[in-house]
Write a structure and sequence with these properties.
Layout: E1 2-7, E2 16-20, E3 25-30, E4 33-34, E5 38-39, E6 51-53, H1 59-62, E7 77-80, H2 82-99, H3 107-115, E8 117-119, E9 126-128, E10 132-138, E11 146-152, E12 155-159, E13 183-187, H4 198-214, E14 219-222, H5 228-238, E15 244-247, H6 251-259, H7 268-277, E16 279-280, H8 284-290, E17 295-299, H9 309-316, E18 323-326, H10 335-342, E19 344-347, E20 350-353, E21 357-360, H11 369-378, E22 384-388, H12 392-406, E23 410-411, E24 418-420
Parallel strand pairs: 3-6, 6-7, 7-8, 12-13, 13-22, 14-17, 14-18, 15-16, 15-17, 18-21, 22-23
Antiparallel strand pairs: 1-2, 1-24, 2-3, 4-5, 9-10, 10-11, 11-12, 19-20
Helix pairs in contact: 2-6, 5-7
Length: 421
């Protein structure tokens, strides 16, 4: 088997790997790198591709998949779980609305992708041309998220995609029962930094939320619409936050999808209760009133780049009794990062001081450094290792450490590099 690295080499974004066997060409993920305009993975010809496996709905893994479906007669199969396709569709349609100008596909191509989808359960293998077997395992990262085991000619490749082995309020931990492997493709996002322990982040957030409301303020929590918004509402619920929780924006559409797939949740009853008790804001009348009430408002976008978050930020920033809890990653030059670093908001090019109290909390859906090493501790065999999906130094240093500690042949590949096993 051969793996060609088409993206996510020393970068976070546009994850894409091509597996080639005697008879097949199969992509693992085909994502975009979202900057001011999206960057794409290395080009492939759809007619050369048999299937694309989509590990999860985040656009850095799924965002360029529709480009493989520009022809209605295509033979490409899209493989993933049902929640992955439903959540991908939601995020892809939103991306077309925001950045459609830069994209080579349209809404209709997302439909073609959906029509060519092959829905798998976890641990239900699929054979491609009787030459390559693909099995999805639970990844613990977002609803429906999967890792991939690819087997051909007695060789086995394990691709972590984005992984969380500790589990969250919403999701069970990743399933690492995969046996002996010959090549490991592992994410490196936090390989060089330990995250705040989850329990502490939860305690700190709830304490801040209570503080803000008890002094007569409103708390605004900008959060990614898929997973983070729901996880935060469960965190508040499970830690005895006794005030109203309000959800808004695209998070509501994600709520509906997640409620349809209880078997993918760790505790469906708790989820149903937490999401059901929250107020779902629909319409401007209610939105304008809720910013003056003692409650926690959870709404995308997580980095404050769009959606109803813009309105909430503007209103909440006016009063020093209010609070803003940043619970998502804040990329450079986003309104969220600017707010965090300089306590200012930007509207129509004008800076305004933010009077509300701003705090940041770490709620990563990725493994932290020690948890990434726990994966390696549990690996059977002496695989080659590719460290991907991290910045340059995270990927390179992680590969060196794996080499020193386990003696595995580990490297941080370049884009376009071909690895044979
Ligand atoms: Zn992800």
């Amino acid at each position: 088997m051969k793996v060609t690295v088409l993206g996510a080499a020393k970068e976070v974004g546009r994850s894409a790997f091509l597996i080639t066997t005697n008879k097949t060409n199969v992509l693992l993920d085909y994502g975009v790198l979202i900057k001011r305009e999206p960057n794409f993975p290395v080009h492939v010809r759809p007619k050369d591709i048999d299937a694309v496996v989509v590990t999860h709905a985040h656009l850095d893994h799924s965002g360029f998949v529709p480009s493989l479906f520009l022809s209605k007669d295509t033979k490409v199969q899209a493989i993933g779980t049902l929640p992955t396709f439903e959540l991908s569709r939601l995020l892809l349609e939103d991306m077309i609305k925001i950045s459609g100008f830069y994209l080579p596909f349209e809404f209709v191509d997302i439909m073609t992708m959906m029509n060519h989808s092959k829905i798998l359960q976890y641990r239900e293998p699929i054979s491609i041309k009787n030459d390559l077997k693909i099995t999805l395992h639970e990844s613990g990262h977002i609803l429906g998220g999967a890792t991939v085991l690819a087997e051909s000619n007695a060789k086995r490749i394990f691709y972590t995609g984005d992984i969380n082995t500790r589990g969250t309020n919403l999701l069970r931990p990743a399933d690492l029962d995969i046996g002996k492997i010959d090549l490991l493709i592992i994410e490196s996002t936090y390989s060089q930094s330990e995250q705040t322990p989850r329990e502490q982040s939860e305690r700190d957030l709830v304490e801040f939320a209570n503080e803000v409301i008890e002094r007569g303020g409103t708390l605004f929590i900008p959060a990614f619409s898929v997973e983070r918004a729901q996880e935060i509402s469960c965190v508040l619920k499970n830690n005895n936050f006794n005030h109203k929780i309000v959800m808004d924006g695209m998070a509501l559409k994600a709520n509906e999808i997640m409620l349809r797939h209880p078997s993918f949740l760790r505790n469906p009853d708790m989820f149903k209760q937490a999401i059901g008790e929250a107020e779902w804001v629909r319409g401007w009348n209610r939105r304008k009133k809720v910013v003056k009430e003692p409650c926690a408002i959870i709404s995308p976008a997580g980095m404050l780049v769009g959606g109803s978050a813009i309105f909430y930020l503007q209103e909440i920033a006016k009063d020093e009794r209010n609070g803003i809890a940043l619970v998502s990653y804040q990329a450079n030059n986003t309104p969220g990062r600017i707010l965090l670093e300089r306590r200012v908001t930007m509207f129509n090019g004008k800076e305004k001081r933010c009077l509300a109290d701003v705090k940041r909390f770490e709620f990563s859906a990725h493994n932290s450094r020690s948890e990434l090493f726990e994966i390696l501790d549990r690996i059977e065999g002496t695989p080659k290792v590719l460290t991907v999906h991290g910045d340059g130094s995270s990927c390179m240093r992680f590969a060196e450490e794996i080499n020193e500690k386990y003696g595995f042949d580990a490297r941080a590949p370049e884009t376009g590099e071909v690895i044979e096993i």
